[in-house]
Sequence to fold (488 residues):
Amino acid sequence: MNSFYNVLVIGAGISGIGAGHYLKKNCPNKSFAIIENRDSIGGTWDLFKYPGIRSDSDMFTLGYAFKPWISEKAIADGPSILEYLNETVRENNLRENINFNKKVISAHWRSEDDLWKVVIKDNISEEEKEVTCNFLFMCTGYYKYENGYTPDFPGIENFNGQVIHPQHWPENLNYENKKVIVIGSGATAATIVPELSKKTKYVTMLQRSPTYFVSYPDTDLLANRLRKILPKSLAYTIIRLRNVFFQQWLYTICRKYPKFIKKRLLKAVQDVLPNANIEKDFNPRYNPWEQRMCLVPNGDLFESIKSNGVKIETDEIEHFQNNGIKLKSSKELEADIVITATGLNLQQFGGTEIFVDNNKINPAETMTYKSMMFSGIPNFANSFGYINASWTLKADLTCEFVCKLLNHMDKNGFSSCVPKPDQSVKEQDDWLASEFSSGYIHRAIHLFPKTGDKSPWTNNQNYFRDFYEIKFGKVNDGAISFKQEKIA
Fold:
């Protein structure tokens, strides 16, 4: 590993691998390295090992804009997604740029040099090294890899069975003919439950409140037909655009007509589960798209309820017992294994401490520019995907913008850039909290930067608007302050 790079990319998951591709393609003269804390690529898709792990978005939008997804299945399992990412690394010769088992501890911007000094720890030798770069690109995602979120359940220490968080699924877990409780009703629970139910004695999905479930085929007939008559890249682009339009339309219509959409969603569940207590077990307390809706490929969750004896319990936990869980309704659930599919812990920048001229930066005291840069932090970008659509859609756009920004700086002889809102921009608090009610967001809302009341300081959550602004908008839009490179 060298001591200087033009660009340091932190993280070798979906965002970081994408960043490597765009830097090689659009900024071929820039030296860069990708720093990865773990010993393999893939991020989320290498970390999570629980049964049935799959995408909760279609692969035409979760896949990269530059690499067509050509599998028959539109909803892919984890190993298939990981192979797709490995293919991307091989095709772009990125392995030579990735430094594994390296943890970024802190990053220090020095204005007198217009450089970042980044402290990196080798996870094997535990030695620390300082690497210098001109631009720092964070592609670390937004949650802690070290541990997931588990509430403080009373008496959990008294339980004689195994308690497992999906983020740390043990190898070779034996759940055959076991009594299993899965706590949670989000995407992870909806993924695990049908898969476990194939082998367990029975599975109970214990939820404090219901989630909206949407059944959808895991294959896309139109996509598979188009690939037979059109070039793969063209077929991919057509389906990708169609799916983005559908995602944006669905989100808009859900927010505009929540009662109508809610009625339709509940009716769809009632049609496949006529004996279910829809009001109690499938009727969420919130409106559609105030939290992500759960995709159920081919209705597998519903099928597991009908055919594999999966039970839904909507209640709250009184306390754990040695043989299971007692609910506040006084009902007792027996279990050999309890899966806590209770969510994630969020963090900013992978836990890296950021300093600008010896002043430690609190991201919550900054304002986000195009939801990818931050006021007061020079030569710095962060890849943060959409909440209401596939993560990769925004990651692609962020990478394109970073490359466009770097080329603009080179062309004009600029050594640094920093977003600076003028006095006319009014600060807005808690944009995420006002739009989304998910617990994992509200637990960490104090960590997030502010937004402004007008572009480019807003967080659009709108792919087409972002696409237009990044593809056709000016880099020098008056919101970024550029510094001329010193002439020796």
